[in-house]
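Lab notebook page, bench 4
Experiment: in silico fold of construct C2
Operator: M.H.
Input chain length: 477 residues
Purpose: comparison with the prior construct
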Amino acid sequence: MKKYLFILALAGSFLFTSCESFLDEPLKGEHSSDNIFNTPAEADLVLTGVYNNLSFTTSSNMIWVFGDIASDDAVKGGNPGDQADMTSIDNFEVKSSNGVLYTYWKFTYEGISRANNVITGVYNSGIDDATKQQMIAEAKFIRAYHYFNLVNIWGKVPLRLVPSSPSNVNLRLSEVADIYAQIEKDLKEAAAVLPASYDAANAGRVTKGATFGLLAKAQLYQQKWDESISTIVNNIEPLGYDLEPNYATLFKLGAENSKEVVFAVRHMSNKNPGVGNSLNQWFAPLIENGYYTNAPTASYVASFDETTIDGKTDPRLDISIGRDGHDWVNGEPFDPTWSTTGYLIRKHNQPASEVAWGTKGDGGLPYIYMRYADILLMKAEAYTEKGNLSEGVAALDKVRARAGLDKVKAVSQSQMRSAIYTERRRELGFEFHRFFDLMRWGQEVASAALGPNFKWESPRYYFPLPQAEVDSNHGIK
């Protein structure tokens, strides 16, 4: 996707040329939804906008608030008087008027709208069939990704599959099962078209592996254990993904090109208009012009209660967070007073040598949505739920071995579940998955982790629909 973000930055740069020369230029044409898909190059610009909506360039992409702050891994942090709507989510005192709910709702449906425009527009264009099918497949993956997040935050949501118009603006809520069915349909259709890899000029586009990875995850969330295993074993593993030897390299510049990365959202610093990663500012300490939000909890730190084979602390802990007695990303000793909990996230932070404090929100790190380690842990979980503990242990031990941990000693299904739950927390901490894991693991696990403010609601906890959507969409009853 680096190519696409660069195209947006380059196009935006023309906005800042001389006003006089701009005004003197004769009108050379205009684009609308009727003619933007006339050529592959024009359609590719529209597809770029679909990808761009996945980024963390603005504060609208708040998936981390749901994935982390709503979980036991983090609290809101930051200035106690700021971001009251995040605090409400942290405390499970969420009302339908919550601004974070509506911001992320609009963000996801904007992404879905862009994807729908590509799917529909390209179908009706004169572009060659191979290019057309490729673009549609990429847009379908992104649409499925957005719906996967929506259904796991809100449950029933409107399932919009065509561009909005006066005739379909009011749309009813679809059942969770129907939303998952559409997610699977989009992903299977996309996987049949997409390649396993691209050349350097097209790096970052959705691949066959990314599509199968999200499909395996959707199947796992629906407890389709056999199907998830089949997708992993028959479709993902043959593509050659592997674990990086050094966990730390996954959270440095260039990590998006790792052999472990199944899908990542790419960013670039120093572009105009900006296409950088704002998470670098959200999670940094105040002295670096950061907001020090999403503060890790003592509970997260305590989950690393197992030493490596040679008696050391699991290295993933200090790669993931900053804490007392260890150096921060710039090399200076970490000061626990920088955070409301005594801890800050390292994974999404860059040193000043890479991103100056004055442009802290313009980071260059990718957001890695899915890694091969996640695939292995999904495989371990699916096999465990099937009762095949030996296969589950084999997959789990690959992840543990990289961290220097001994082979798992689990001998029963319940012990394996506990080991997998803990390993996902350690391995994928602050990659915005924790809350959704807790929800799918059920009432007992979620309630124990989230404390007395959390109230389980059958079939699971969902956030309230944004009131603005309820008021404007008359299809919601």
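Observations: The first helix runs from residue 2 to 13. The chain is about 45% helix and 5% strand.
Next step: discuss at group meeting.
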